[in-house]
């Protein structure tokens, strides 16, 4: 499209004038951002059309990744890099006096997710396209993504997020591809050719309009599609209150639900879920049938992946289509359906497993409910066949029981593959949480350890580090991230380690500047940047971190000779709006920050920073600057974690428990290059099963623990009136469910060791290098290749050629 920067400049200036009717000197950064975005999107269209044509005419199996969340972040820089025009564009803009960093700030994060599950979906899309694999996303175009967080006097305040306020350059509305989704109404039965048939009548229709976003592969011609659905009112129908209909319809895709583990059981959320799957299946089947494919062979040509249980209604929805619209019999429909779907589980927290009350489900989705009922009955019959008389087992495994639909059970019964997201997580699923299902369907269970796209999290987010790496080992790692292992050859190379040091310092200075601007706090780039950024949740134990900071403060107060390497503790976290305990933890972090940051007793050695409105773009600023990555969940609770991988790839050292993917990070980095502490998953599960943990004992027998716990309520903390009693009670009265006090001493000891190790600069840099070198395994390219080969059975262009 443009061969050099001058070419680009010409296109850019002409387009800017055409779009805004202004001259370049009159234009704002926003005008410039949208001009550039439009040019790039059009440029992408050529390969987008080409990819779609190729998929239409080739016999390639297609994968659809259904997810209620896609946490994309910003796309401009990623797209420029993947297209291979980053340098030309940057140089052209520079000539015009435009700083790419500045116009990038005009792009709102597409924050259509809460955390790990949504970001994983975004990383997977990048890897699918970059590996030339035919995999597409299906999601919801929420008008408001995850709320914007402000911290006011230490409290989280939530504002509606507005990513679409100025329009979104990467999406293309496709009104001609809209479909209808039906809710409510009732089911009528009738006879046709002697067969009993059903139809859904008196239903309320909602129009689902797709907005497509191109997913550009890294330096390849593949451009896949992320299709996001928006709910719009259907055209006028007599006898219907159209204003009410409009309100109710628009509500479906208005907000992303915050991950509320204290599930509110909202009808609206169930509506969202069915809306997503019904619209997606319609469009998947339309495209499949337009290629004149045979509905009886669907599973040979299509795999549909369901990201956690949120899209699991796709299973009964496909059954409905095959039975009611294509006239298949139950057995065949079930055979096709259960060979089409694969399911990933992302949690072992039982309170996060979705269950829907029948009284909500049945009226909203009457035909789908009938089908789920039938699936349940047949499933229970097959259980009876294998375990005759074992009522107890059958009750525990049933899809519907005690007036509730168990979504995970439906997902397992209706899928050919069930996977966990890290080795330890899959083992816990097999041996404990889903053991009965594992006994019944051992062949379905498999592990797929998560990954992250190294193109966003290293190449884009940390360009200086990428350059240092490429100078050392060449650029092959960008296509083959395992090649990062080549860095091992430089572990004794002082010059190279010094380069790493410079890059880290540079990133720390940039972050320090940002902290100064946002928080008005001066932090020392020479201090250890110790970072915990992730959603706020009791099991992730931000509390352990903050109590430990309080403990360090006490040490300074009590012993004037105590000293430590200066440390800056950086937090970022959103708490679900209804999760009051999590909000108290934010307040506590703020309160400890106030206590510590300006007290001369700590001699400037400790600073605590809470960076508000944690999101993908902020993570990209923070992670490259981190020295220590806090991955301190109660063992057995974090399915995988993916932040842990991003930090590792950027040379931070992990302080962590043997939980989720930390276990595999330990294997890749080696025990000398990671700081492991605390109970193991087995020990935690043993306590849960057999008891034997009394937090009060740790409180009474450890003076340091007693002191920090008391400080929650004794007035030590500024502005603390009654705020932290609930936290105090959770630790003592409620016997500390997440073993914060149990792991406290072990955590304090490993943190002390980390601080001492940091003082040996060369030694630390070497550990950092070994982490980067081992991080290639955690690229989502590796993960996606495993899904493609073991689950979906799909191949890319390269593989097809052979
Ligand atoms: C469920 C019911 C009702 C309302 C909301 C929800 C809900 C929504 C989102 C439940 C869970 C989620 C999100 C879960 C999530 O992000 N899990 C994380 O997934 C990552 C990717 O696999 C893992 O790395 C993390 O360990 C896991 O916590």
TrEMBL record:
Q: Which NCBIfam families match?
A: P_ylase
Q: Which residues carry this modification: N6-(pyridoxal phosphate)lysine?
A: 646
Pfam family example for this protein? Phosphorylase
Any one biological process term the GO annotation gives = glycogen catabolic process
Annotated keywords: Allosteric enzyme, Carbohydrate metabolism, Glycosyltransferase, Pyridoxal phosphate, Transferase
**Does the keyword field hold DNA damage?**
no
What's a GO cellular component annotated to this UniProt protein?
cytoplasm
Q: What is the lineage of its organism?
A: Bacteria, Bacillati, Bacillota, Bacilli, Bacillales
CDD domains (UniProt xref): GT35_Glycogen_Phosphorylase
**Catalytic reaction annotation:** [(1->4)-alpha-D-glucosyl](n) + phosphate = [(1->4)-alpha-D-glucosyl](n-1) + alpha-D-glucose 1-phosphate
Q: Which family does it belong to?
A: Belongs to the glycogen phosphorylase family.
> What is the name of this protein?
Alpha-1,4 glucan phosphorylase
Entry-linked PANTHER family: GLYCOGEN PHOSPHORYLASE, GLYCOGEN PHOSPHORYLASE, LIVER FORM
> What cofactor does this protein call for?
pyridoxal 5'-phosphate
Enzyme Commission code(s) on record: 2.4.1.1
Sum up the protein's function in the record's words.
Phosphorylase is an important allosteric enzyme in carbohydrate metabolism. Enzymes from different sources differ in their regulatory mechanisms and in their natural substrates. However, all known phosphorylases share catalytic and structural properties. Allosteric enzyme that catalyzes the rate-limiting step in glycogen catabolism, the phosphorolytic cleavage of glycogen to produce glucose-1-phosphate, and plays a central role in maintaining cellular and organismal glucose homeostasis.
The answer to whether the entry has keyword Transferase is yes
Q: Which molecular-function annotations from GO does this UniProt entry contain? A: glycogen phosphorylase activity; pyridoxal phosphate binding
In terms of SUPFAM superfamilies, this protein maps to: UDP-Glycosyltransferase/glycogen phosphorylase (SSF53756)
């Amino acid at each position: 499209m443009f061969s050099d920067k001058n070419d680009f400049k010409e296109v850019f200036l002409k387009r800017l004038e055409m779009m805004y009717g202004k001259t370049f000197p009159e234009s704002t950064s926003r005008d410039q951002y949208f001009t550039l975005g439009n040019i790039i999107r059009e440029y992408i269209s050529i390969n987008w059309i080409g990819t779609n044509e190729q998929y239409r005419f080739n016999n390639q199996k297609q994968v659809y990744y259904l997810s209620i969340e896609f946490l994309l972040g910003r796309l401009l820089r990623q797209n420029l890099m993947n297209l291979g025009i980053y340098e030309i564009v940057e140089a052209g803009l520079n000539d015009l006096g435009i700083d790419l960093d500045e116009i990038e700030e005009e792009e709102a994060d597409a924050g259509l997710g809460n955390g790990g599950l949504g970001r994983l979906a975004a990383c997977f899309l990048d890897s699918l396209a970059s590996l030339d694999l035919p995999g597409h996303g299906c999601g919801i175009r929420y008008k408001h993504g995850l709320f914007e967080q402000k911290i006011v006097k230490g409290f989280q305040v939530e504002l509606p997020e507005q990513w679409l306020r100025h329009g979104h350059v990467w999406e293309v509305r496709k009104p001609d591809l809209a479909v209808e989704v039906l809710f409510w109404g009732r089911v009528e039965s009738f006879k046709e050719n002697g067969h009993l048939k059903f139809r859904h009548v008196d239903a309320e229709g909602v129009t689902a309009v797709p907005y497509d976003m191109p997913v550009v592969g890294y330096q390849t011609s593949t451009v896949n599609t992320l299709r996001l659905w928006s709910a719009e009112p259907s055209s006028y129908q007599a006898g219907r209150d159209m204003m009410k209909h409009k309100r109710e319809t628009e509500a479906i895709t208005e907000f992303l639900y915050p991950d509320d583990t204290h599930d509110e059981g909202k009808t609206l959320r169930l509506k969202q879920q069915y809306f997503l799957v019904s619209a997606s299946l319609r469009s998947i089947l339309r495209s499949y049938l337009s290629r004149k494919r045979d509905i009886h062979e669907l599973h040979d040509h299509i795999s549909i992946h369901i990201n956690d249980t949120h899209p699991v209604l796709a299973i009964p929805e496909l059954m409905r289509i095959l039975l009611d619209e294509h006239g298949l019999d139950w057995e065949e429909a079930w055979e096709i359906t259960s060979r089409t779907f694969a399911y990933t589980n992302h949690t072992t927290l039982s309170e996060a497993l979705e269950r829907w009350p029948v009284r909500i489900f049945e009226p909203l989705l009457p035909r789908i409910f009938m089908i789920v009922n039938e699936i349940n009955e047949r499933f229970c019959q097959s259980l009876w066949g294998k375990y005759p008389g074992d009522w107890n087992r059958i009750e525990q495994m049933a899809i519907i029981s005690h007036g509730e639909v168990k979504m995970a059970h439906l997902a397992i019964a209706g899928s050919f593959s069930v996977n966990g997201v890290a080795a330890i997580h899959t083992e816990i699923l097999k041996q404990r949480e889903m053991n009965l299902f594992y006994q019944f369907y051992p062949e379905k269970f498999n592990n797929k350890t998560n990954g992250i796209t190294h193109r966003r999290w290293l190449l884009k987010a940390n360009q200086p580090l990428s350059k240092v790496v490429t100078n050392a080992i060449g650029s092959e790692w960008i296509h083959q991230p395992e090649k990062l292992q080549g860095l091992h050859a430089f572990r004794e190379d002082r010059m190279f380690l010094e380069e790493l040091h410079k890059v880290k310092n540079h990133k720390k200075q940039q972050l320090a500047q940002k902290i100064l601007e946002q928080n008005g706090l001066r932090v020392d780039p020479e201090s250890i940047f110790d970072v915990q950024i992730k959603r706020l949740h009791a099991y992730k134990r931000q509390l352990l971190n903050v109590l430990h900071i309080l403990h360090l403060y006490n040490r300074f107060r009590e012993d004037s000779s105590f000293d430590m390497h200066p440390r800056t503790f950086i937090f970022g976290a959103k708490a679900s709006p209804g999760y009051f305990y999590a909000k108290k933890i934010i307040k506590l972090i703020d309160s400890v920050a106030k206590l510590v940051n300006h007290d001369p007793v700590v001699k400037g050695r400790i600073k605590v920073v809470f960076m508000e409105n944690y999101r993908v773009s902020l993570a990209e600023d923070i992670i490259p600057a981190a020295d220590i990555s806090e991955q301190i969940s109660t063992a057995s609770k974090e399915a995988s974690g993916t932040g842990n991988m991003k930090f590792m790839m950027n040379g931070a050292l992990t302080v962590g428990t043997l939980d989720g993917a930390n276990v595999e990070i330990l294997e890749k980095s080696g025990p000398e290059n990671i700081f492991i502490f605390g109970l193991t998953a087995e020990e935690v599960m043993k306590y849960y099963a057999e008891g034997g943990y009394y937090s009060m004992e740790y409180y009474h027998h450890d003076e340091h623990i007693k002191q920090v716990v008391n400080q929650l309520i004794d007035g030590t903390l500024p502005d603390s009136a009654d705020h932290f009693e609930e936290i105090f009670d959770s630790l003592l009265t409620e016997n500390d469910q997440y073993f914060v006090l149990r792991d406290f001493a072990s955590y304090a000891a490993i943190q002390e060791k980390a601080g001492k190790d940091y003082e040996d600069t060369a030694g630390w840099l070497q550990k950092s290098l070994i982490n980067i070198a081992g991080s290639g395994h955690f690229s989502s390219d590796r993960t996606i290749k495993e899904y493609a080969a073991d689950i979906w059975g799909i191949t890319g262009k390269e593989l097809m050629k052979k």
